[in-house]
Structure formats: C-alpha cells, structure tokens
Amino acid sequence: MNIGVRREIEPGERRVAATPESVVQLVATGLDVSVERGAGAAAGYPDGEYAKAGARLVDTLDIERCDVLTHVRPLDAGTVARLAPGTITVGLAAPAANLPVVAALRDAGITSFALELVPRLSRAQSMDALTSQALVAGYRCVLEAAMRLPRFFPLYMTAAGTIPPARVLVLGAGVAGLQAIATAKRLGARVSAYDVRAASADEVASMGATFISLDVDTADGAGGYATELAEDRAARQRELLRPHIEAADVVITTAAIPGKPAPRLVGSDMLRGMRSGSVVIDLAAESGGNVEGSVPGSDIPIPLDGDRGTITLVGMKDVASAMPYDASRLYAKNVSNLLALMTVDGEVVPDFTDEVVGGACLTHDGIVTHQPTLEAMSPSAGTLETGLLR
Amino acid sequence: MNIGVRREIEPGERRVAATPESVVQLVATGLDVSVERGAGAAAGYPDGEYAKAGARLVDTLDIERCDVLTHVRPLDAGTVARLAPGTITVGLAAPAANLPVVAALRDAGITSFALELVPRLSRAQSMDALTSQALVAGYRCVLEAAMRLPRFFPLYMTAAGTIPPARVLVLGAGVAGLQAIATAKRLGARVSAYDVRAASADEVASMGATFISLDVDTADGAGGYATELAEDRAARQRELLRPHIEAADVVITTAAIPGKPAPRLVGSDMLRGMRSGSVVIDLAAESGGNVEGSVPGSDIPIPLDGDRGTITLVGMKDVASAMPYDASRLYAKNVSNLLALMTVDGEVVPDFTDEVVGGACLTHDGIVTHQPTLEAMSPSAGTLETGLLR
Hints:
homodimer; 390 residues; Rossmann fold; seven-stranded mixed beta sheet; 12 helices; 31% helix; 18% strand; proton-translocating NAD(P)(+) transhydrogenase (chains A, B); oxidoreductase (chains A, B); NAD (chains A, B)
C-alpha cells in the first residue's frame, strides 16, 4: 500500500508527518512511502535522506491515489475532496474546531484517524501526539520567557553582588506544564506551580517545584485531564492566585480542558500588580487564552499600576512548529507507530475492535465514529449517551 | 558632590549606569545623585524607585554642572564638549575605537575613568564591568542559540523514542565562554570547548565540558587574556577545528584579543559541512567576528554542501543590553564600587597612586594617562615603552 507524505500547506507550519527515521520503520512493515520533495526541508530533513531511507520522492504528491495520507495539520476541505473513497488519513484533526471538515471526511467515505483521539493507555503512549507536541511546547515556552525577561533565570553570586534566581510560576501542570517546570528548573529558576487536579501536587513536587495549594476544590476529569470549574469557584481561584502572580517574574499558563475553550485563569487586572519587565506566557492563547487579553503570536505590553513600567504578555502560536526537527521526529514516530499497529503483511487494515485503533478513529465508512464529535455535529443527538470527555 | 545619571542616548541601549540599589550605596557615601527621568525605564527601574533610594529626579540632566557623570556607552564628542573642566566621568570608553573622543576628553581637562581599564586584580573584581557584562553575554548567547535550534538541548527519553542531547561547541573560554558552557550544560546539552590559553583546559573541565586539545601552541597574554596567533598557526587551528565544528549542532564563538580585532576562528567553508538547522553564534561579531561572514545584529542563512539545507549564522550585537535589568544591576555596582573607592567625606578625590584608580584612568588634567591609548594616538610615540597589552 502507498503511504503519502505531503508538504504541509498551512503557512508557518514547519513540521512534517514523516522523517527519514520513520520512513525506515514504515518501509520495514512492507509499506511503500512517497514523500513530496521538500516536505521535510523546513524541519531540517533534506530530500536525500528520505531517498536513502527507502522513500520515493515525488514532485507533487498524487493525493487521489494515496492509500494512506499522513499529515500534521488538520486537512482542509479542498484536500478531502481529492481523496478516493476508502482512503485512510492519519494526523491531527482538531475535530471540535473543524466540524465541516469532519462532515466532508464522513461524506467522502474516508477512514480518518485523529491523533488527538488516541486513548491515554500505556500501550498507546508511543502514538500520543498531544503528549509529544506538548513536550516541545513546554520546553519552548520557557525559552521564550527567558529571552524576553530582562533578568537572569539562575542565581549568580558575583563580585558585583548576588543576583537572586528568577521566580517562575506555572499554571496548569499537564505534560506541557511539567516540562515547563523541568526546563525552568534546569535554567536555575525558583519554580512554583498550580493545577486544579488532585494528582498534580505530587507530580509538581517530584520535579523540584513548589506546589501552590489554593482553597479551591479539585477538578479531575476522564483520562487525567481537568474539567471546568463553576464560575464562582473560578473567580475565587483567580483571587487566590493574585498574590502568587504578583510575586512572579515569569508566569507560564498551560491550562486546557479537552473540547472546551481554555479556562480564564488570569484577569488583566491581576497583571498590573506585577513587577516591571515581568513576562507572562499564555500557551493556551490559540484555544481562547488562559490570560485575559492574550493574542496568539503577539507580544502585548501591559502598563503597570502607578507608572511603574510594563510587563509583556505573550500569546503563543504554533509552538511545536518553532522546533520542527525534534517536534517532527516525535510526531512522525507517533504516526508510524499507529500505522505499524494497523499494518499486516504490508496492508493497513484497521482492527476497530482494538481500543487504540477504534478510539483514534474519527470517521469510517460514511459515519462519524467519535461520539462527542458526532454529538457536536447534530444538535438532535443531545439525547444520545455522552461519550467520554476527551 | 553631584553625581549625574543620564538616559543613555545610543539607540538600542537599554542599560543604565545606576540602579536604585547603587543609588543607595552612593548616597550612603555622602554623594548627591541626580537621575534623569526615565533613565532606568528600559531596564525595568521606574523613576519612583530612584526617588525612594534617595536620588533627585530631573527632567534633563544638567551635564554642564555634574561633578561626576556616569554612563554606560562611551561618551560622544557632543557630550564631552558640554562638560566643565575637571569633571569626572565613569563608564565604558572603548578607547581604542574612540580615539577622537579620548582626545576631546584630554583637551577638555576631563578626568575620565574607563571601566575597561580596571586592572584584573582580586580587589578590583567588583568594579570589573568587562567581566560582569561578559557574564550576561555568555548566558544570553546560549538562549539565542536554543531559540533558533530546531531541536531540544536536553536528552529526552520518551515513549516515541529517545532524543539525544544537542552538541554545543564553545570556542574561547573566557568569562563569556565559561558562562556559555555553564548555561548550555544547565539546559542539558553535551558541551565541548576550546581555547588557546594553557589554563583553559582545567577551567573547561571544571564546568563539566570536554576540553578539545588541538596540536597548536598555546598563546597566553597579560592579565589572563589571549594573544594573537601567527597566521600559519591560525590556519592550522582552523583545520583542526573543522571536524569539531561539523559535529556540533551549536557553535558559540567568544574569542577576543584585547586591543585587536577578534581572531578569525571559523572560515565560511567550515560551516558548509555542518548539519541542516545548526546554529552558529558569533559573540565577537561587533569586534570583527570570529566567524567569516558574520554581521552584527543579523541572522544569515548559510547553504550547506550537497543541497542539504542551511545553517544559521548569528552575529550578536548589544548582547548585554538585551537583558538590561540584571546587566544594569551589575554594571551600576561596578560604577558605584569604583566611585566608593575614590570617595572621602562625600567628595570624589581620585588617588592616582592606587593601582586600581590609576589603572582605570584614561585622561586626567590634559593628558592621556593610559599608555597604549596614548601610543595609538601619537604615531611618534612608537619609541616609548609599550604598556601592558590589555
């Protein structure tokens, strides 16, 4: 069967769905791999290395004839219209934000796998692109903060005096948050963190950071994710966070609730009591923002109370794509591992009774197989049993 | 006596010669401090904090009436023309690059102290601005590299495979180079380093990096600085460095020879064998460049041999100014410590017989007191005894 690897078409996207390393794996399972010339160029993988790994290089991928199309960004309707019925697609799909494309995939009879839907099981970890890309994002956002902070992260004891370490506050301690904690610790900052989930305190402490306990109920959802707080509790949470934010040189927010807009953890009034030069990084800016006023891809100066200067509010955008070599390396392995799970004798034959395969499937044979997406698409489906919140 | 602290006038300069903390020290020694409004704004020190520290805020500094003028960047001729005879100035002077200004300082009867000239003695360490600003530069250039590298610095062992640590090569292991080594190690990179000075091997090893021994003679100069290599040895050094550069993901060059252009350590042909996406940071770009083709303040893509993509050659510029809060904090302490050494009963009265005070003096009472600068200014002075190379 023929696996297609395309040049991503979204402007600014530098990742690629296969690397020479993942091509070797795909070829070893008996698949033919076609790579569009230049597909890996922006990520640092030259065409020659794909050829050496056993891929066929093509000037333009013949999307109509791919048995399997791999991709990074969610497909657009134009691409879906070119796929033959029965084609398999594997990549990020962001179904909640792309319902018309999901409908197109369904109507075109595509068997689409959305990497976001890979269940959080230990045997599926190697296919979990949310985790692999969050690892990149968590590391990256600390570099972004350190670059903008007019101060050092580490403690320095010099002949001209002692410089105290920067104080970094991480809100949301999922994969990205824990990685941000680890990276800020590496760089020598004093790190504290908060999360609404009960299990977070131990995880944060195990990274060497101080866990902030607020007098707010915990909110644990399915699959280790957080659930939404009621507004009165969210307001109380913000009020209790205020002194911690004002004491920080860097605040990094990473809170996400699957299928919902990002929770508003920080109001703009909470920023105006910070110290001049401080930096606030909103990793959730693209999904609604944890911080009031953040704009994806923009640095916004926020004036402080009392004419004390400004802080910088940074809305992150395309974070994983900013480190495309390693982000692609992990992502491509996620893709090839999922394909390997479905490949028998050189044919990709999904066994939908497999919890991982069935769980990751978004559309198949003219139906939307992911229950929450199906419900979101059909208002009348509100009476159906609700699937797991993902 | 009145100490003036000005807003720096050089575009892009964000540092300031006094901080609220250093003002406290100056006031405690009996000096009056006038701070131009907004002088610390870009560095993150609001006017109000200077006032609290005991400074007088002025809309425009009355340069003609300052007893002592403190500054960061070398003074320009226009400012010097406004100073009253006998005024004391303290700041960076870059005399070798600013001979006309030195002549103006001499002719105006200014007692100027150049922080670059502070002797490398242990009791003068707290006044050594080259060291304090190199600390900032060394830390900063690693962040600049990490931001541009499409890969992680640390080793990661993930469910989707192991990512090896980035390989960082530091050329030149002075204060900035050692700080770059330390910061790259903190971030988890595998670090190696090279320097022509004999003492470097132990210093590099003590930071946890691998010292690269090349079969080239060492070149130690006065004050712990390096001296220039003869061209045949420099060529051999480049040839021996080539495989180390090609094996690196990040190369950081920090080599400087006092009073001379930066040594050329890396030819552009040596870059074309690197791997796609690699990053080369030339910290010496402003003083001639360690790397052929580097341009201060620019990122230059260098195409690799064999159509294998590009690397990025980064010429650094105004590095310390990019972290103005802590850079100013250290710099201001260097300035106030030198002033404290010269202050008796609230009067700045330099004792030129003090090795530190005399050494740091550039001009006094109508003469250029720094011998190498004097020689550079007067071609006929070639017959005078040569001062220490600084």
